[in-house]
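question for whoever is on the cluster today: can someone run the full assembly for these? two chains, 416 residues total. i dont have access anymore since they changed the login thing
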Amino acid sequence: MLERIELVKPADIEARSMEIIRQELQGETWPEPEFSIVKRCIHTSADFDYARNLCFSKDAAKIGVEALKRGASIVTDTRMAASGINKKRLAEYGGEVHCFMDAPEVAEEAARKGCTRAAVCMDRAAGLSGELVIAVGNAPTALIRLFELIQEGSIRPVLIIGAPVGFVNVVEAKELIMTAGVPYIVPKGRKGGSNIAAAVCNAMLYQK
Amino acid sequence: MLERIELVKPADIEARSMEIIRQELQGETWPEPEFSIVKRCIHTSADFDYARNLCFSKDAAKIGVEALKRGASIVTDTRMAASGINKKRLAEYGGEVHCFMDAPEVAEEAARKGCTRAAVCMDRAAGLSGELVIAVGNAPTALIRLFELIQEGSIRPVLIIGAPVGFVNVVEAKELIMTAGVPYIVPKGRKGGSNIAAAVCNAMLYQK
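^ ran it for u. tokens below:
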């Protein structure tokens, strides 16, 4: 069995993976930086649905890359995405990752208001200063609250990565956030997740 | 648009999601605790492929649940999985999560040996005492090294969750680890990832 293992140097595994993904996309391509984002989402999931479902508002990926290079910070509703985002690269540009999910006062406020912790996290994001990329990888309720905050004029993110995953209000929350008038990157439908949210962030961070 | 949002209390969202998953599986079922694992992998990815690709060796899920309840620890090759595993629940049973990916000496050893950090992490796991569940959510090289360590008699995990994701040696490494003579839970094929590795662990931790 071991003889079937392809010998690839550790440093070359990612490049080889991206080459295979490009081959299997059979000539289908996107402009950059969109293409890097599509490929990295497929790389993290082995799911070619991301070649179909990823929606970019006009120049969204370019806007995101430029904002991160100017030192924008990232707010996410999931610890796993916070863990997966390349914080070292982000810090080189001057940004940091904020995730408020673990704060006990967030849980208390959510219980008091009868909403999710993820929704309270968006209220917290509205209190931050500086440019923000909001990367939602778990809760559609975060996107719904974010939409309300944008409508109220309480927050104006540079870019929204709307990648919650699941079965309850996920499709609807994504469609809603695409009408908020803010640049977005959204995998339409039920799919998404913390790995996808982190992959979109990292693909932008890795742009030359 | 907001009127299309289904009103579900935060505490009920997961149960409602699981109900939808069960409905869409159209009567297809598994014994427990396998069914909980299949459903949680679909819940975390919105990808029904996990109803097809998850392979369980005989009693693997039951063996995993019992080991965790006895206080087995979990070793993983990904920080994101370490972040996603319910460490509070694990600690209640006496276990903890080990992830050696960030240790500078692991990076040094990998560079010196020309292997991946994930492979070195498996060497580190072999130095741990007590019962271990190994949850691989990223690197096929971790599974290949784990196979070698089992062959040498250097480690004997209670259960292997073999869920690396990707395009280079992933399929082959999964097939290899299924021949190691150790109980396994493996999503066959290219799919997997840190979200899946964490979902399998959490589904077992949440068993009554």
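summary bc i know u wont read the tokens: Chain A is about 50% helix and 10% strand. Chain A touches chain B through 50 residues (CB under 8 Å).
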